[in-house]
Structure formats: C-alpha cells, structure tokens
Amino acid sequence: MKKKASNNLTSFADHLDEQYGKRGTEERERFEEGFEAFRLGVMLQELRKEKGLTQEQLAKKCGTTKTYISRIENNASDIRLSTLMRIISEGLGGHLRVNVDMK
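The chain above was modelled as a monomer; its predicted structure follows.
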C-alpha cells in the first residue's frame, strides 16, 4: 500500500518568519540587512565578470584595492554609497539607481 505524500510545504516568507521573526523585529531586520549586503556583493561580482574584469582590474579603474573589491563581493565589508557609485560608474560604466521600499 502506498503512503500518501504529505503536502506540508512552507512558503519562504513563512520560513523566514519562523526562523528570524516577523518583519520589524530586531532579529529579522538584522537578517534582512545582511541579505541585502550579500545580494549587493553577488550583483557586483556578476557585473564585473560580465565585463570580463578581474577584481584587480576593477579596483584600478575605480581607485580602490583588489582586497576591498573582494571583501565587498564576499559580504565581508560595508560599502559607502560614494564608493559604490564610483565602482558602478568608473569601474563598470553603469549608473546607480536607488529605490526605497516603504512597506
């Protein structure tokens, strides 16, 4: 006799609520901030690779160090907005747009 498959799936949002608390709680906001920093690092790494640049080449183009670029890409460093703008414009030839989500 076959067992019926369980359909106890949890949505990702519910999982986050369970693991880190609801949005607005201190622990959840720390998680969200960390996740955004991670996303930024991954985005910069992907853009750099699309342009065919090494970390060292990107660093030279925008006046920073390879170590700093590596730290940003690996989520080990906070980044100033002015530095991010310089990396995007001078290093990658793009334009930074900022969006604020007021939930």
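The mean pLDDT is 86.
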